[in-house]
Amino acid sequence: MRGAIKAMQLHVIEGYIQSLYLVEYDHGLLLLDGGCRSDVGTVLRFINTELGRPIGDLTLVVVTHMHPDHAGAATRLRQLTGCGIATGEAGGHWYDGLEGRLMHLTDLLLARWVAHRLKRAHRRLWYPAILKADHYLADGQPLPGFSQWQALSTQGHTDRDISVWHPDSGRVYVADLMVKVKGRFIPPFPVFHPNRYRRSVERIGALQPRHVLLAHGGEVQLTEADYQYLQSKAPRCPQTHWRAVKARFQRVWTGS
C-alpha cells in the first residue's frame, strides 16, 4: 500500500518544448497546462512510473490558451484518463474560421521551429483546433476539484489566457505571460492585445508571488526591477504573425 502523500506536491516534468507542472494530492492530480500532443506519453509514464499511481488519477487538465504547447495534449489525455479539461471564459474559438485555421497551422509550424532550435527529435504535434472543454472558468473562480487553486484572467498573449494562482504557497503559473531569455524576462510572441498584456503583468506583480512558474523558463522569482523591465519591453501595438510577415515583406520590397 502506498504511503501517505503530503498535502500538496508540485512535480516539474520536462515536456517536448516547455515545462509541465503536475500537482499531486491524495484525491487526484492536476496538470497546470495541456502541453504538446507529443507530451501525452511523457505525462502518463510519469504518473504511472514515477508516482506509482494509475493514470485515472489525473483529474483535471488546465488549458491556459490554445497554442500547441499548451492545448496539444489535453483532448487525448481526457480520452485516455477520463480527466476534465478547464479553460478560461472567452467568446468563440481562438482558431475559428478560415483565418483561425491558417493561424493554427502557423502556430504548429512555429512549435516545430522551436523544437528544431532545441534539437528535439521530430514528434507528433497535430491537435484539434477547436477545444471542447468541460469547465469554462471566470476570473477568480476556483479550479473544479482543486479549490486551493484559482484561475486568473491574464490576457494579452491571446484573448483568453489564464494564469493559475495558489495563494497558500504563493505560487502562480503564468504560462506564456513572460519568457526567460539570457537571464531576462521578456514578453512572448505574439502579443495580440498590448493594453491587456501590460495590465496582466501589473496584476501578477501586485500579487507579489513567492514563486512564478513559467512554461519557458522554469520556476523563478521576480524582483520589482524584473517587472519594470518586462513592462518597458511590452509592445504598444499588436505583435502578431501577420504583422511580422507584412513587415518582412516590406523590408524585402524596400531593400532595408
TrEMBL record:
Pfam families: Lactamase_B (PF00753). Residues 17-216 form the Metallo-beta-lactamase domain. InterPro entries: Metallo-B-lactamas, NDM-1-like, RibonucZ/Hydroxyglut_hydro. PANTHER family: ACYL-COENZYME A THIOESTERASE MBLAC2, METALLO-BETA-LACTAMASE DOMAIN-CONTAINING. Belongs to the metallo-beta-lactamase superfamily. Class-B beta-lactamase family. This is MBL fold metallo-hydrolase. It comes from Ferrimonas pelagia.
